[in-house]
Specification:
By secondary structure, the chain is α/β, with parallel strands linked by helices. 41% of the residues lie in helices and 18% in strands. It folds into 2 domains: 228 residues, Aldehyde Dehydrogenase, Chain A, domain 1, CATH 3.40.605.10; 180 residues, Aldehyde Dehydrogenase, Chain A, domain 2 (3-Layer(aba) Sandwich). Helix 2 packs across helix 6, helix 3 packs antiparallel against helix 6 and helix 4 packs parallel to helix 5. The longest helix has 27 residues.
């Protein structure tokens, strides 16, 4: 079935009202959960082939998070789908007011290659829970995972309800020529702008999960070794190919040398003396990105790592010192295992530096001083973040996840996913046994008094 015909088929299926039945939604979500539980090894094998992800990392960062989101949606979907009653003003006596959720219709999920399973299926789970039909477009850069997703959806879902379109740029282009009722995109800022431009022709609402240069601030030396460990985890997980990875470090001058020493010890603890020989070191997705990262390391003051293997497309966890705002590492999102270090003397310098740049997707504060924490939260705008840790804020269905400004728009996870893929309708239901007369023509002084009494 070609893309145009697929969209048409899904629209016709949506109009049968099948997807609006809560039981059908639950049945589909349970079918996905069952498939994942029964075929975890196929997913893990595909992630190993595409990114060299270890089985534990694949479960922790992809499969487990999807199962958690599935279980959360299944637990709450009936409650969320009920009408939400609110207070009715006395001027609208006698009536009841409520909000009801309706699905948008035919939705498109466009996902990236860095967490190819999780970032394809988690948004789709929210779209299904809200009652939409779904077309998933996985990244062609992770072909093995793309094939597994295709197999999963084919074996567990009706194509008229949930479908997968594989392929590359040509398929992306054709999909964006179609009319969807909602588009959910995860990827780069430049492609996100193109998606938004295409969606604007039909006034299609979008969620854009983008990225940017997410700062990490270290403002005291309490638990400095633990800070280094948590920063190393967030930065070097998935070889730094994480949209919420700490992109660069801003650290108080007096703590830098000790931090670098701790970081050396932590990297050795994580990956051994020869990280390139470590079987758990994730690879860079392709030659293009390997070359881009290698070029960024030219003429840098590398204090840890810096070596790459062009045959396996792996790069050692790398730390670069003496970086300033004009350094090539500070001109684009790094999206790799390279941590530039910048220093400051006073927290106001760090705030000014951050606020001169686009709003980041993530923001990390390492400080035990509550006044510093509050000051940074007050003065800096960002999508989400952590205090005294990194990246874990996105690993819960209780918190929405999304960007702001150049790092994206909209949010998802948990109830936010259900709301993202739903249109909220406001409804007032009036009684017919009484009808307050003051709103009707002709107006007079008595009606004016009554209106001013009730509407204020």
């Amino acid at each position: 079935m070609d893309i145009k015909e697929l969209v048409k088929t899904q629209r016709e299926f949506y109009q049968t009202q099948y997807t609006k039945d809560i039981n059908h939604r639950i049945q589909t979500l349970k079918a996905l959960r069952t498939w994942i539980l029964e075929h975890q090894n196929r997913i893990i094998e595909a992630l190993k082939k595409d990114l060299n992800k270890d089985a534990v990392e694949s479960y922790m960062c992809e499969i487990g998070l999807v199962l958690s989101e599935l279980n959360y949606q299944l637990k709450h979907i009936k409650k969320w789908s009920r009408n939400k009653y609110v207070w009715t003003p006395i001027s609208q006596f006698y009536g009841t007011s409520f909000e009801s959720y309706e699905p948008y219709g035919v939705t498109l999920i466009m996902s990236p290659w860095n967490y190819p399973f999780m970032l394809s299926i988690e948004p789709a789970v929210g779209a299904i829970a809200a009652g939409n039909t779904v077309i998933i477009k996985p990244s062609a850069y992770a072909p093995n995972v793309s094939h597994v997703i295709k197999q999963m959806i084919t074996e567990s879902c009706d194509e008229r309800y949930v479908a997968v379109v594989e392929g590359g740029r040509a398929e992306n282009t054709e999909l964006l020529e179609q009319r969807f009722d909602y588009i959910f995109f995860t990827g780069s800022v430049n492609v996100g702008k193109l998606v938004m431009e295409k969606a604007s022709r039909y006034l299609t609402p979008v969620t854009l999960e983008l990225g940017g240069k997410s700062p990490c601030i270290v403002d005291d030396d309490k638990s400095l070794k633990l800070a280094a460990k948590r920063i190393a985890f967030g930065k070097f997980l998935n070889a730094g190919q994480t949209c919420v990875a700490p992109d660069y470090l801003l650290i108080k001058k007096e703590y830098k040398d000790m931090f670098i020493q701790h970081m050396k010890d932590i990297i050795q603890e994580f990956f051994g003396d020869q990280p390139l020989n470590n079987s758990q070191l994730v690879k860079i997705i392709n030659q293009k990105h390997f070359d881009r990262l290698s070029h960024l390391l030219e003429n840098q003051d590398i204090v840890i790592g810096g070596t790459g293997n062009p045959e396996t497309l792996q790069i050692e966890p790398t730390v670069v010192d003496h970086v300033d705002q004009n350094n090539p590492l500070m001109q684009e999102e790094i999206f790799g295992p390279i941590l530039p270090i910048l220093t400051y003397s006073h927290i106001d310098e760090a705030i000014a530096f951050i606020n001169q740049r686009e709003k980041p997707l993530a923001f990390y504060i390492f400080s035990h001083d509550k006044s510093i924490q509050k000051k940074l939260l007050k003065h800096c705008s960002f999508g989400g973040g952590c205090i005294n840790d990194t990246i874990i804020h996105l690993a819960t269905s209780e918190l929405g996840f999304g960007g702001v400004g150049n790092s994206g728009m909209g949010s998802y996870h948990g109830k936010k996913s259900f709301e993202t893929f739903s249109h909220t309708r406001s409804i007032v239901k009036k009684a017919t046994w009484i009808d307050l007369p003051m709103r009707y023509y002709p107006y007079n002084s008595m009606k004016e008094k009554l209106i001013k009494m009730f509407v204020k």
